[in-house]
Protein backbone atom coordinates (compact mmCIF):
# COMPACT_ATOMS: atom_id res chain seq x y z
CA UNK A 1 0.00 0.00 0.00
CA UNK A 2 1.31 3.48 -0.88
CA UNK A 3 2.13 5.67 2.15
CA UNK A 4 -0.43 8.24 1.04
CA UNK A 5 -3.16 5.62 0.73
CA UNK A 6 -2.18 4.13 4.05
CA UNK A 7 -2.61 7.51 5.78
CA UNK A 8 -5.91 8.04 4.02
CA UNK A 9 -7.05 4.61 5.20
CA UNK A 10 -6.08 5.37 8.78
CA UNK A 11 -7.86 8.73 8.71
CA UNK A 12 -10.96 7.02 7.30
CA UNK A 13 -10.82 4.32 9.99
CA UNK A 14 -10.86 7.01 12.71
CA UNK A 15 -13.64 8.88 10.96
CA UNK A 16 -15.78 5.72 10.70
CA UNK A 17 -15.34 5.19 14.45
CA UNK A 18 -16.25 8.82 15.14
CA UNK A 19 -19.51 8.65 13.19
CA UNK A 20 -20.48 5.37 14.90
CA UNK A 21 -20.10 3.21 11.80
CA UNK A 22 -18.66 0.76 14.32
CA UNK A 23 -18.76 0.50 18.08
CA UNK A 24 -17.38 -1.67 20.83
CA UNK A 25 -19.62 -3.16 23.51
CA UNK A 26 -21.85 -6.20 23.81
CA UNK A 27 -24.14 -6.56 20.82
CA UNK A 28 -26.64 -9.18 19.68
CA UNK A 29 -25.78 -10.49 16.21
CA UNK A 30 -27.94 -11.99 13.45
CA UNK A 31 -26.21 -15.33 14.07
CA UNK A 32 -27.61 -15.45 17.61
CA UNK A 33 -24.61 -14.74 19.83
CA UNK A 34 -23.26 -11.53 21.25
CA UNK A 35 -20.34 -9.73 19.68
CA UNK A 36 -17.98 -7.18 21.24
CA UNK A 37 -17.91 -5.17 18.02
CA UNK A 38 -20.78 -3.91 15.94
CA UNK A 39 -20.75 -2.39 12.45
CA UNK A 40 -23.45 -0.21 11.00
CA UNK A 41 -22.21 1.29 7.75
CA UNK A 42 -25.72 2.50 6.94
CA UNK A 43 -24.81 5.74 8.72
CA UNK A 44 -22.34 6.79 6.03
CA UNK A 45 -25.15 7.99 3.74
CA UNK A 46 -25.49 10.90 6.16
CA UNK A 47 -21.84 11.93 5.68
CA UNK A 48 -21.20 12.73 2.01
CA UNK A 49 -17.49 13.33 2.66
CA UNK A 50 -17.14 9.84 4.17
CA UNK A 51 -19.17 8.37 1.33
CA UNK A 52 -16.84 10.07 -1.14
CA UNK A 53 -13.68 8.80 0.55
CA UNK A 54 -15.00 5.24 0.90
CA UNK A 55 -16.00 5.08 -2.76
CA UNK A 56 -12.76 6.70 -3.94
CA UNK A 57 -10.77 4.10 -2.04
CA UNK A 58 -12.99 1.30 -3.33
CA UNK A 59 -12.43 2.45 -6.92
CA UNK A 60 -8.67 2.70 -6.31
CA UNK A 61 -8.76 -0.82 -4.87
CA UNK A 62 -10.68 -2.14 -7.86
CA UNK A 63 -8.13 -0.57 -10.23
CA UNK A 64 -5.07 -1.78 -8.34
CA UNK A 65 -6.45 -5.33 -8.19
CA UNK A 66 -7.43 -5.11 -11.88
CA UNK A 67 -10.96 -6.27 -11.18
CA UNK A 68 -12.36 -5.62 -14.61
CA UNK A 69 -15.99 -6.57 -15.09
CA UNK A 70 -18.89 -5.70 -17.33
CA UNK A 71 -21.21 -4.78 -14.42
CA UNK A 72 -21.18 -3.93 -10.73
CA UNK A 73 -23.84 -5.05 -8.29
CA UNK A 74 -24.27 -3.94 -4.68
CA UNK A 75 -25.52 -6.36 -2.02
CA UNK A 76 -28.82 -4.86 -0.84
CA UNK A 77 -29.29 -2.49 0.90
CA UNK A 78 -26.34 -0.76 2.56
CA UNK A 79 -23.97 -1.29 -0.36
CA UNK A 80 -26.39 0.01 -3.01
CA UNK A 81 -25.30 3.67 -2.83
CA UNK A 82 -21.64 2.58 -2.80
CA UNK A 83 -22.17 0.42 -5.88
CA UNK A 84 -23.89 3.37 -7.58
CA UNK A 85 -20.88 5.63 -7.04
CA UNK A 86 -18.46 2.92 -8.17
CA UNK A 87 -20.57 2.47 -11.29
CA UNK A 88 -20.55 6.22 -12.02
CA UNK A 89 -16.85 6.70 -11.35
CA UNK A 90 -15.86 3.79 -13.55
CA UNK A 91 -18.62 4.09 -16.13
CA UNK A 92 -19.45 0.45 -15.43
CA UNK A 93 -23.16 -0.32 -15.79
CA UNK A 94 -24.91 -1.38 -12.62
CA UNK A 95 -27.18 -4.31 -11.88
CA UNK A 96 -29.64 -4.19 -8.99
CA UNK A 97 -30.69 -7.34 -7.19
CA UNK A 98 -34.19 -7.33 -5.77
CA UNK A 99 -34.38 -8.83 -2.33
CA UNK A 100 -37.87 -10.16 -3.05
CA UNK A 101 -39.01 -10.91 -6.60
CA UNK A 102 -41.90 -8.66 -7.66
CA UNK A 103 -45.27 -10.29 -7.09
CA UNK A 104 -46.63 -8.75 -10.30
CA UNK A 105 -45.28 -8.03 -13.79
CA UNK A 106 -42.01 -9.58 -14.87
CA UNK A 107 -40.92 -11.21 -11.58
CA UNK A 108 -37.36 -10.18 -12.30
CA UNK A 109 -34.70 -10.81 -9.64
CA UNK A 110 -32.06 -8.69 -11.33
CA UNK A 111 -32.79 -5.24 -12.74
CA UNK A 112 -30.63 -3.79 -15.51
CA UNK A 113 -29.58 -4.85 -18.98
CA UNK A 114 -27.28 -7.85 -19.27
CA UNK A 115 -26.52 -10.97 -21.26
CA UNK A 116 -25.80 -14.44 -20.01
CA UNK A 117 -22.02 -14.79 -19.72
CA UNK A 118 -21.50 -11.16 -18.65
CA UNK A 119 -19.15 -10.64 -15.72
CA UNK A 120 -20.20 -8.78 -12.56
CA UNK A 121 -18.25 -7.42 -9.60
CA UNK A 122 -19.99 -7.54 -6.21
CA UNK A 123 -19.82 -4.54 -3.84
CA UNK A 124 -20.54 -5.14 -0.14
CA UNK A 125 -20.16 -3.10 3.05
CA UNK A 126 -19.38 -5.55 5.86
CA UNK A 127 -18.71 -9.28 5.64
CA UNK A 128 -19.17 -11.64 8.56
CA UNK A 129 -19.96 -15.13 7.22
CA UNK A 130 -20.28 -14.04 3.58
CA UNK A 131 -23.85 -15.38 3.35
CA UNK A 132 -25.32 -12.08 2.05
CA UNK A 133 -22.76 -11.98 -0.75
CA UNK A 134 -23.57 -15.60 -1.58
CA UNK A 135 -27.32 -14.80 -1.78
CA UNK A 136 -26.59 -12.11 -4.37
CA UNK A 137 -24.11 -14.34 -6.24
CA UNK A 138 -26.75 -17.09 -6.44
CA UNK A 139 -29.35 -14.78 -8.01
CA UNK A 140 -26.85 -13.37 -10.50
CA UNK A 141 -25.67 -16.86 -11.45
CA UNK A 142 -29.23 -18.04 -11.95
CA UNK A 143 -29.42 -15.44 -14.73
CA UNK A 144 -26.20 -16.76 -16.27
CA UNK A 145 -24.02 -13.93 -14.97
CA UNK A 146 -20.43 -14.81 -14.05
CA UNK A 147 -19.20 -13.66 -10.62
CA UNK A 148 -15.58 -14.13 -9.62
CA UNK A 149 -14.79 -11.19 -7.33
CA UNK A 150 -16.28 -9.08 -4.54
CA UNK A 151 -14.95 -5.81 -3.13
CA UNK A 152 -15.94 -5.11 0.45
CA UNK A 153 -15.36 -2.24 2.83
CA UNK A 154 -14.82 -4.28 5.99
CA UNK A 155 -13.89 -7.91 6.50
CA UNK A 156 -14.72 -8.92 10.08
CA UNK A 157 -12.27 -11.82 9.61
CA UNK A 158 -14.74 -14.42 10.81
CA UNK A 159 -14.41 -16.81 7.89
CA UNK A 160 -16.32 -14.87 5.20
CA UNK A 161 -13.44 -14.86 2.71
CA UNK A 162 -13.04 -18.64 2.92
CA UNK A 163 -16.79 -19.22 2.67
CA UNK A 164 -17.22 -17.25 -0.52
CA UNK A 165 -13.99 -18.67 -1.97
CA UNK A 166 -15.63 -22.11 -1.75
CA UNK A 167 -18.13 -20.76 -4.27
CA UNK A 168 -15.43 -19.45 -6.58
CA UNK A 169 -15.61 -15.80 -5.47
CA UNK A 170 -12.51 -13.94 -4.28
CA UNK A 171 -12.93 -11.29 -1.62
CA UNK A 172 -10.95 -8.04 -1.74
CA UNK A 173 -11.40 -5.96 1.39
CA UNK A 174 -10.50 -2.35 2.00
CA UNK A 175 -10.30 -2.84 5.78
CA UNK A 176 -9.86 -5.83 8.01
CA UNK A 177 -11.13 -5.68 11.55
CA UNK A 178 -7.50 -6.06 12.71
CA UNK A 179 -6.45 -2.98 10.75
CA UNK A 180 -9.27 -0.95 12.31
CA UNK A 181 -8.38 -2.16 15.81
CA UNK A 182 -4.69 -1.39 15.35
CA UNK A 183 -5.37 2.04 13.92
CA UNK A 184 -7.65 3.01 16.82
CA UNK A 185 -5.18 1.61 19.31
CA UNK A 186 -2.29 3.55 17.73
CA UNK A 187 -4.34 6.73 17.87
CA UNK A 188 -5.09 6.11 21.54
CA UNK A 189 -8.82 5.83 20.89
CA UNK A 190 -9.25 2.39 22.47
CA UNK A 191 -7.40 0.45 25.12
CA UNK A 192 -5.39 -2.71 24.76
CA UNK A 193 -8.07 -4.60 26.71
CA UNK A 194 -10.61 -3.75 23.97
CA UNK A 195 -8.25 -4.95 21.23
CA UNK A 196 -7.64 -8.16 23.18
CA UNK A 197 -11.34 -8.80 23.82
CA UNK A 198 -12.23 -8.38 20.15
CA UNK A 199 -9.24 -10.44 18.98
CA UNK A 200 -10.19 -13.24 21.35
CA UNK A 201 -13.76 -13.16 20.11
CA UNK A 202 -12.74 -13.19 16.42
CA UNK A 203 -10.40 -16.11 16.98
CA UNK A 204 -13.17 -18.12 18.62
CA UNK A 205 -16.17 -17.04 16.54
CA UNK A 206 -15.39 -18.30 13.05
CA UNK A 207 -18.61 -18.79 11.13
CA UNK A 208 -19.59 -21.19 8.32
CA UNK A 209 -21.59 -19.76 5.42
CA UNK A 210 -24.78 -21.41 6.76
CA UNK A 211 -24.41 -19.34 9.94
CA UNK A 212 -23.20 -22.21 12.15
CA UNK A 213 -19.97 -21.88 14.08
CA UNK A 214 -16.82 -23.67 13.07
CA UNK A 215 -16.47 -26.26 15.81
CA UNK A 216 -20.27 -26.46 16.24
CA UNK A 217 -22.30 -25.17 19.17
CA UNK A 218 -19.42 -25.91 21.47
CA UNK A 219 -17.19 -23.36 19.73
CA UNK A 220 -15.28 -21.53 22.41
CA UNK A 221 -16.82 -18.04 22.31
CA UNK A 222 -14.71 -16.69 25.12
CA UNK A 223 -14.24 -13.14 23.97
CA UNK A 224 -17.95 -12.60 23.36
CA UNK A 225 -18.67 -11.30 26.82
CA UNK A 226 -15.44 -9.47 27.60
CA UNK A 227 -16.87 -6.10 26.66
CA UNK A 228 -20.06 -6.40 28.69
CA UNK A 229 -20.63 -2.87 29.93
CA UNK A 230 -20.90 -3.64 33.62
CA UNK A 231 -17.58 -5.52 33.69
CA UNK A 232 -15.53 -2.66 32.26
CA UNK A 233 -13.81 -0.04 34.36
CA UNK A 234 -14.85 3.60 34.18
CA UNK A 235 -11.42 4.40 32.67
CA UNK A 236 -11.98 1.97 29.80
CA UNK A 237 -15.46 3.27 29.26
CA UNK A 238 -14.23 6.87 29.13
CA UNK A 239 -12.29 5.85 26.03
CA UNK A 240 -15.33 4.28 24.41
CA UNK A 241 -17.67 7.19 25.12
CA UNK A 242 -18.86 9.35 22.23
CA UNK A 243 -20.06 12.23 24.40
CA UNK A 244 -17.38 14.58 25.79
CA UNK A 245 -19.44 14.96 28.98
CA UNK A 246 -19.62 11.18 29.47
CA UNK A 247 -15.84 10.97 28.98
CA UNK A 248 -15.28 13.73 31.50
CA UNK A 249 -17.62 12.19 34.06
CA UNK A 250 -16.20 8.65 33.70
CA UNK A 251 -12.68 10.01 34.18
CA UNK A 252 -13.75 12.12 37.15
CA UNK A 253 -15.42 9.07 38.78
CA UNK A 254 -12.31 6.95 38.26
CA UNK A 255 -9.93 9.60 39.63
CA UNK A 256 -12.06 10.73 42.54
CA UNK A 257 -13.24 7.17 43.26
CA UNK A 258 -16.91 7.96 43.61
CA UNK A 259 -20.05 6.92 41.77
CA UNK A 260 -22.42 8.78 44.06
CA UNK A 261 -24.81 11.48 42.85
CA UNK A 262 -26.43 13.68 45.44
CA UNK A 263 -30.02 14.66 44.64
CA UNK A 264 -30.01 18.06 46.37
CA UNK A 265 -33.80 18.31 46.56
CA UNK A 266 -34.00 21.21 49.02
CA UNK A 267 -36.03 24.37 48.66
CA UNK A 268 -33.64 27.01 50.04
CA UNK A 269 -30.53 28.07 48.12
CA UNK A 270 -28.42 28.28 51.31
CA UNK A 271 -29.37 24.71 52.29
CA UNK A 272 -28.34 23.37 48.87
CA UNK A 273 -25.02 25.21 49.03
CA UNK A 274 -24.43 23.95 52.55
CA UNK A 275 -25.11 20.37 51.44
CA UNK A 276 -22.87 20.83 48.37
CA UNK A 277 -20.07 22.07 50.61
CA UNK A 278 -20.39 19.13 53.02
CA UNK A 279 -20.92 16.35 50.47
CA UNK A 280 -18.87 17.82 47.58
CA UNK A 281 -15.70 15.82 48.28
CA UNK A 282 -17.61 12.50 48.08
CA UNK A 283 -19.79 12.92 44.99
CA UNK A 284 -19.22 12.88 41.23
CA UNK A 285 -22.49 14.59 40.40
CA UNK A 286 -24.83 17.02 42.11
CA UNK A 287 -28.36 16.93 40.80
CA UNK A 288 -30.77 19.82 41.21
CA UNK A 289 -34.44 20.57 40.62
CA UNK A 290 -34.06 24.36 40.39
CA UNK A 291 -37.79 24.91 40.08
CA UNK A 292 -38.25 23.91 43.73
CA UNK A 293 -35.80 26.57 44.98
CA UNK A 294 -37.80 29.40 46.57
CA UNK A 295 -35.02 32.00 46.51
CA UNK A 296 -33.36 31.16 43.21
CA UNK A 297 -30.85 33.78 42.04
CA UNK A 298 -27.87 34.10 39.73
CA UNK A 299 -25.56 34.32 42.72
CA UNK A 300 -26.88 30.93 43.95
CA UNK A 301 -25.81 29.46 40.61
CA UNK A 302 -22.37 31.08 40.66
CA UNK A 303 -21.79 29.83 44.24
CA UNK A 304 -22.84 26.35 43.17
CA UNK A 305 -20.46 26.50 40.22
CA UNK A 306 -17.62 27.61 42.49
CA UNK A 307 -18.28 24.64 44.80
CA UNK A 308 -18.44 22.30 41.78
CA UNK A 309 -15.00 23.49 40.69
CA UNK A 310 -13.54 23.43 44.18
CA UNK A 311 -14.73 19.89 44.99
CA UNK A 312 -14.60 18.57 41.42
CA UNK A 313 -18.15 17.45 40.72
CA UNK A 314 -20.45 17.88 37.73
CA UNK A 315 -23.80 19.71 37.81
CA UNK A 316 -26.99 18.15 36.52
CA UNK A 317 -30.34 19.90 36.34
CA UNK A 318 -32.96 17.15 36.51
CA UNK A 319 -35.44 19.11 34.41
CA UNK A 320 -36.93 16.04 32.65
CA UNK A 321 -37.78 18.00 29.53
CA UNK A 322 -40.70 16.48 27.64
CA UNK A 323 -42.03 18.93 25.05
CA UNK A 324 -41.58 19.62 21.34
CA UNK A 325 -38.12 20.62 20.12
CA UNK A 326 -38.80 24.34 19.87
CA UNK A 327 -40.28 24.55 23.36
CA UNK A 328 -37.52 22.57 25.07
CA UNK A 329 -34.94 24.67 23.30
CA UNK A 330 -36.48 27.76 24.95
CA UNK A 331 -37.00 26.05 28.31
CA UNK A 332 -33.36 24.98 28.28
CA UNK A 333 -31.75 28.33 27.54
CA UNK A 334 -34.26 31.08 28.44
CA UNK A 335 -36.52 32.08 31.33
CA UNK A 336 -35.38 32.71 34.88
CA UNK A 337 -33.15 29.66 35.15
CA UNK A 338 -31.17 29.78 31.86
CA UNK A 339 -30.30 26.13 32.51
CA UNK A 340 -27.99 25.67 29.52
CA UNK A 341 -25.73 28.47 30.79
CA UNK A 342 -24.70 26.53 33.91
CA UNK A 343 -25.88 22.88 34.03
CA UNK A 344 -23.29 20.52 32.54
CA UNK A 345 -26.00 17.90 32.20
CA UNK A 346 -29.78 17.80 32.01
CA UNK A 347 -32.34 15.00 31.92
CA UNK A 348 -35.04 14.55 29.28
CA UNK A 349 -37.93 12.20 28.59
CA UNK A 350 -37.98 10.55 25.16
CA UNK A 351 -41.77 10.79 24.91
CA UNK A 352 -41.66 13.45 22.13
CA UNK A 353 -39.20 11.31 20.12
CA UNK A 354 -35.75 12.12 18.78
CA UNK A 355 -36.66 15.78 18.31
CA UNK A 356 -36.21 16.36 22.04
CA UNK A 357 -32.47 15.78 21.70
CA UNK A 358 -32.26 17.97 18.61
CA UNK A 359 -34.30 20.70 20.33
CA UNK A 360 -31.98 20.75 23.33
CA UNK A 361 -28.88 20.75 21.18
CA UNK A 362 -30.25 23.64 19.14
CA UNK A 363 -30.26 25.86 22.24
CA UNK A 364 -26.51 25.56 22.76
CA UNK A 365 -24.01 28.16 21.68
CA UNK A 366 -20.81 26.15 21.83
CA UNK A 367 -20.99 25.14 25.53
CA UNK A 368 -19.90 21.55 26.24
CA UNK A 369 -23.10 19.92 27.52
CA UNK A 370 -24.83 16.56 27.65
CA UNK A 371 -28.19 14.95 28.27
CA UNK A 372 -29.33 11.84 30.11
CA UNK A 373 -32.42 10.25 28.55
CA UNK A 374 -34.98 8.52 30.74
CA UNK A 375 -35.61 4.96 29.57
CA UNK A 376 -37.19 3.71 32.82
CA UNK A 377 -38.54 5.24 36.03
CA UNK A 378 -38.30 4.22 39.66
CA UNK A 379 -41.89 5.10 40.58
CA UNK A 380 -44.36 2.25 41.02
CA UNK A 381 -47.01 2.00 38.29
CA UNK A 382 -45.10 4.14 35.78
CA UNK A 383 -46.32 3.77 32.18
CA UNK A 384 -43.03 2.89 30.49
CA UNK A 385 -43.15 -0.46 28.63
CA UNK A 386 -40.47 -2.49 26.84
CA UNK A 387 -41.07 -0.89 23.45
CA UNK A 388 -40.75 2.63 24.90
CA UNK A 389 -37.57 1.60 26.68
CA UNK A 390 -36.06 0.06 23.53
CA UNK A 391 -36.85 3.11 21.42
CA UNK A 392 -35.42 5.41 24.07
CA UNK A 393 -32.15 3.46 23.96
CA UNK A 394 -32.15 3.69 20.15
CA UNK A 395 -32.44 7.47 20.41
CA UNK A 396 -29.51 7.42 22.84
CA UNK A 397 -27.25 5.23 20.72
CA UNK A 398 -28.10 5.81 17.06
CA UNK A 399 -28.28 8.84 14.83
CA UNK A 400 -26.37 12.08 14.56
CA UNK A 401 -26.77 13.27 18.15
CA UNK A 402 -24.97 10.52 20.02
CA UNK A 403 -22.19 12.91 20.99
CA UNK A 404 -24.72 14.87 23.04
CA UNK A 405 -26.21 11.89 24.90
CA UNK A 406 -24.04 11.17 27.94
CA UNK A 407 -26.19 8.49 29.51
CA UNK A 408 -29.47 6.84 30.29
CA UNK A 409 -31.58 7.06 33.45
CA UNK A 410 -32.81 3.54 34.04
CA UNK A 411 -33.31 0.77 36.56
CA UNK A 412 -31.79 -2.34 34.92
CA UNK A 413 -28.46 -3.54 33.55
CA UNK A 414 -30.02 -4.98 30.38
CA UNK A 415 -31.54 -1.65 29.42
CA UNK A 416 -28.66 -0.76 27.05
CA UNK A 417 -25.37 -2.34 25.96
CA UNK A 418 -23.13 0.46 24.71
CA UNK A 419 -20.36 0.90 27.33
CA UNK A 420 -19.72 4.51 26.35
CA UNK A 421 -23.00 5.58 27.98
CA UNK A 422 -23.47 6.08 31.73
CA UNK A 423 -26.33 4.41 33.62
CA UNK A 424 -27.80 6.74 36.23
CA UNK A 425 -30.06 4.96 38.69
CA UNK A 426 -32.20 6.69 41.33
CA UNK A 427 -34.20 5.01 44.07
CA UNK A 428 -31.34 4.22 46.45
CA UNK A 429 -31.65 4.11 50.23
CA UNK A 430 -30.13 1.93 52.90
CA UNK A 431 -32.98 1.47 55.35
CA UNK A 432 -36.20 1.85 53.42
CA UNK A 433 -38.10 0.15 50.59
CA UNK A 434 -40.68 2.75 49.59
CA UNK A 435 -41.78 6.28 50.42
CA UNK A 436 -45.40 7.40 50.79
CA UNK A 437 -45.61 8.66 47.18
CA UNK A 438 -44.62 5.62 45.14
CA UNK A 439 -40.81 5.86 45.16
CA UNK A 440 -39.19 2.39 45.29
CA UNK A 441 -35.78 1.98 46.94
CA UNK A 442 -32.95 -0.54 46.68
CA UNK A 443 -29.66 -0.84 48.55
CA UNK A 444 -26.38 0.59 47.13
CA UNK A 445 -25.02 -2.93 46.53
CA UNK A 446 -28.16 -4.04 44.72
CA UNK A 447 -28.31 -1.06 42.33
CA UNK A 448 -24.64 -1.35 41.34
CA UNK A 449 -24.22 -5.14 41.21
CA UNK A 450 -27.68 -6.32 40.17
CA UNK A 451 -29.24 -3.34 38.41
CA UNK A 452 -26.07 -2.16 36.61
CA UNK A 453 -25.98 1.41 37.95
CA UNK A 454 -22.83 3.34 37.06
CA UNK A 455 -23.93 6.31 39.14
CA UNK A 456 -26.43 5.92 41.97
CA UNK A 457 -28.66 8.85 42.87
CA UNK A 458 -29.28 9.38 46.57
CA UNK A 459 -31.54 12.15 47.82
CA UNK A 460 -33.38 11.76 51.10
CA UNK A 461 -31.06 8.95 52.22
CA UNK A 462 -28.46 11.70 52.70
CA UNK A 463 -30.54 14.87 53.07
CA UNK A 464 -32.63 13.52 55.94
CA UNK A 465 -29.81 11.74 57.77
CA UNK A 466 -28.86 13.13 61.18
CA UNK A 467 -25.35 13.68 59.81
CA UNK A 468 -25.63 14.17 56.04
CA UNK A 469 -21.88 14.35 55.47
CA UNK A 470 -21.32 11.04 57.25
CA UNK A 471 -24.24 9.56 55.30
CA UNK A 472 -22.65 10.74 52.02
CA UNK A 473 -19.37 9.07 53.05
CA UNK A 474 -21.23 5.81 53.85
CA UNK A 475 -23.10 5.80 50.56
CA UNK A 476 -19.91 6.66 48.65
CA UNK A 477 -17.95 3.86 50.34
CA UNK A 478 -20.63 1.22 49.79
CA UNK A 479 -21.33 2.23 46.18
CA UNK A 480 -17.64 2.35 45.30
CA UNK A 481 -16.94 -1.02 46.94
CA UNK A 482 -19.84 -2.53 44.98
CA UNK A 483 -18.41 -1.13 41.74
CA UNK A 484 -14.89 -2.42 42.39
CA UNK A 485 -16.34 -5.86 43.14
CA UNK A 486 -18.41 -5.72 39.98
CA UNK A 487 -15.45 -5.04 37.68
CA UNK A 488 -13.13 -7.46 39.48
CA UNK A 489 -15.28 -10.48 38.58
O1 LIG B 1 -37.07 7.43 37.76
C1 LIG B 1 -36.59 8.35 38.41
C2 LIG B 1 -35.80 9.35 37.83
C3 LIG B 1 -35.24 10.31 38.64
S1 LIG B 1 -34.10 11.39 37.92
N1 LIG B 1 -36.80 8.40 39.75
C4 LIG B 1 -36.26 9.38 40.54
O2 LIG B 1 -36.46 9.32 41.75
N2 LIG B 1 -35.51 10.39 39.97
C5 LIG B 1 -34.96 11.51 40.79
O3 LIG B 1 -34.03 10.97 41.73
C6 LIG B 1 -36.01 12.26 41.61
O4 LIG B 1 -36.53 13.35 40.89
C7 LIG B 1 -35.22 12.69 42.83
O5 LIG B 1 -34.58 13.93 42.56
C8 LIG B 1 -34.14 11.63 43.00
C9 LIG B 1 -34.48 10.59 44.06
O6 LIG B 1 -34.52 11.15 45.35
P1 LIG B 1 -34.72 10.28 46.68
O7 LIG B 1 -34.92 11.31 47.77
O8 LIG B 1 -35.94 9.42 46.48
O9 LIG B 1 -33.46 9.50 46.85
From TrEMBL:
Active-site residue numbers: 318 (for ompdecase activity), 320 (for ompdecase activity), 323 (for ompdecase activity)
Domain of life: Eukaryota
Keyword annotations of the record: Decarboxylase, Glycosyltransferase, Lyase, Multifunctional enzyme, Pyrimidine biosynthesis, Transferase
A single BP term in Gene Ontology: 'de novo' pyrimidine nucleobase biosynthetic process
Binding site for substrate: 265, 287, 378, 439, 459-460
HAMAP family in alphabetical order: PyrE
PANTHER family: OROTATE PHOSPHORIBOSYLTRANSFERASE, URIDINE 5'-MONOPHOSPHATE SYNTHASE
Name of the protein in its database record: Uridine 5'-monophosphate synthase
Amino acid sequence: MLAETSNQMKALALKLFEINAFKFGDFKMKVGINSPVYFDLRVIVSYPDVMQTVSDLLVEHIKSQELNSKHVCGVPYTALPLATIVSLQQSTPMLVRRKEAKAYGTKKLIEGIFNAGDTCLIVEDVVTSGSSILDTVRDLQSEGIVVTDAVVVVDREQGGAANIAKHGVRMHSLFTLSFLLNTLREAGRIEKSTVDAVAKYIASAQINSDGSFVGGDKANLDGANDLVRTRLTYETRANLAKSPLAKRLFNLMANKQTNLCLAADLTKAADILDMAEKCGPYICLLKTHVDIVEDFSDSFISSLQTLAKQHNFVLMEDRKFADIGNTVSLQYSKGIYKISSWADLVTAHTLPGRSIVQGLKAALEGEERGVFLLAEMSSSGNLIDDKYKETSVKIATEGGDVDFVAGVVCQSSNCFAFPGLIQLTPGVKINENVDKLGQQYQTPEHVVKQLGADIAVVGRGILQASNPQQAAINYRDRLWAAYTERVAK
